[in-house]
Amino acid sequence: MSDTDRLEPASMARAFREARRRGMEVEPAVLFHDLGRMRARIGRIGAAFPPGALHAVAIKANPLVEVLRAAVDCGAGLEAASLEEVRLSLAAGCPPGRIVYDSPAKTRAEIAEALRLGVRLNADNLDELERIDALVRPEAAAGRIGLRINPQVGASSIALTSVADRRSKFGVPLEQADAVRAAFARYPWLAGLHVHVGSQGCAQAQLIDGIRRVEALRQEIRRARGSGAASVMDIGGGLPVAYRSTDRPPALEDYAAALRREVPTLFEGGTTLITEFGRWVQAGCGFAVSRVEYVKKDSAGRTAILHLGADFLLRRAYHPDDWHHDFVALDPDAAAKEGPLSACTLGGPLCFGGDVLARDLALPDLSPGDLVLIRDTGAYTLSMWSRHCSRGIPAVLGVDGGEIRVLRERERPEDVVAFWSRGRGQP
Q1: Per-residue pLDDT at 424
Q2: Range(s) of the domain holding residue 235
Q3: What is the spatial distance between Cα 35 and Cα 33, in angstroms, rounded to a whole number?
Q4: pTM of this prediction?
Q5: Is 202 a catalytic residue?
Q6: Catalytic member of 202, 344, 351, 389
Q7: Same domain, 94 and 232
């Protein structure tokens, strides 16, 4: 079984047409997020893992508060990679005990604030455990503090999103297992372990191997210190998704079943299991539409200039071989563009030469006023928005069954001036 279900261009185009019919701001570019689809994917996670597991959706994949609120309302927790993301979690209505705070650079003040708020916290290294010990009240932190372990299973096919090679900046290397065992003996408030292998480029076997190695260490600690020790296991996220029709990533259900077979102690009673899926939840829920502003033709071919580029698809612009997106040509009425195909370059609106989303892509002959639909933009796109050239973020609209609502208003020039100004937006 493979997990290739994706939103179809026809349904995305219908949503765009309906938003425009309602007078919503869709020009010159607009972003969409399908909230119903997101809820369904969160539901699939809950059904695949044991009851009582905490499924903390990674905020860094998509930090929009209204998106996070919808996730929380259907039972998800949230995973925060910074104290600012902890605040986003609280703004979205997430109970502190269902917020997981991971960061490799927590300051003493941030640790103190996390402990005060009562969120779950994963320490990244042994020195951080010392900082926590100086601040924590053990009776108030029961079951809430873990330690990240680097399972050292090697890099994946996308090196920049691999975090489990031998020189990763994240976690305590598994080769220092003796120091980890000593930490559990020293700190009675330390409740569990955390592992995350990487994102998108990781094969299922690599993900499971990393989890298996860290789970084996947790079981050793439990045998040495009693069944009540190391009761929490956070297995991170990283499950890849389909960006092409030919991609065949593992289905969530198959991944969970493989974990149950190969790492069965994760599913035993007495273990608090935590997941941190982000891309798998969000990527296929989002899409974007940009108007074609100009089409330039010369001896090298033709280039269509869009209103979304490296500001929105930063990874695509800098590493196109690693980060694919499908682009669909629409006419001004948002119907499928017809006509013979020929090579076209899609350029973004920024003033630097690398702002190119696709080169020599086979598309119908585009004209100013046509539209380009970009698929699978729900994760690691808006959250990585670049302020280069200070262009405003487009409106973000939420699709929820037959309803469409504004999740975030379009930024106007005065909003960008406020962003770059001192104080509270005062020039």
Answers
A1: 62
A2: 36-282
A3: 6
A4: 0.95
A5: no
A6: 351
A7: yes
